[in-house]
């Protein structure tokens, strides 16, 4: 099971990084906080202080096609906000 799927690189996530030394990741929906902490520490070589998780509900999507209105839903995902030790950083672009 791949625990960390990808980092979340949005404006809100980058504000968390600048001010509070927190990083956001999309993670496997079956992963718990202990597994997420171990995966981040192993992958990036940093010390994790805290892990907060939430399940983000998928947005309802509608579009008009030849066949009429098509309604659907974007998939839900689990988000982890990881706080790391002061003075340490994660460089996402060096791990690509």
Automatic annotation (TrEMBL):
It comes from Sphingobacterium thermophilum. One of the early assembly proteins it binds 23S rRNA. One of the proteins that surrounds the polypeptide exit tunnel on the outside of the ribosome. Forms the main docking site for trigger factor binding to the ribosome. Keywords: Ribonucleoprotein, Ribosomal protein, RNA-binding, rRNA-binding. Pfam families: Ribosomal_L23. The keyword Ribosomal protein applies. The gene is rplW. This is Large ribosomal subunit protein uL23. The lineage of its organism: Bacteria, Pseudomonadati, Bacteroidota, Sphingobacteriia, Sphingobacteriales. Part of the 50S ribosomal subunit. Contacts protein L29, and trigger factor when it is bound to the ribosome. Coiled coil: none annotated.
């Amino acid at each position: 099971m791949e625990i960390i799927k990808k980092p979340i690189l949005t404006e809100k996530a980058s504000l968390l990084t600048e001010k509070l030394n927190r990083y956001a990741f999309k993670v496997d929906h079956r992963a718990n906080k202990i597994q997420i902490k171990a995966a981040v520490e192993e992958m990036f070589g940093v010390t994790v202080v805290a892990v907060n998780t939430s399940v983000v509900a998928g947005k309802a999507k509608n579009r008009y096609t030849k066949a009429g209105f098509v309604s659907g839903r974007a998939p839900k995902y689990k988000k982890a906000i990881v706080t790391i030790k002061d003075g340490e950083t994660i460089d996402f672009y060096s791990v690509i």
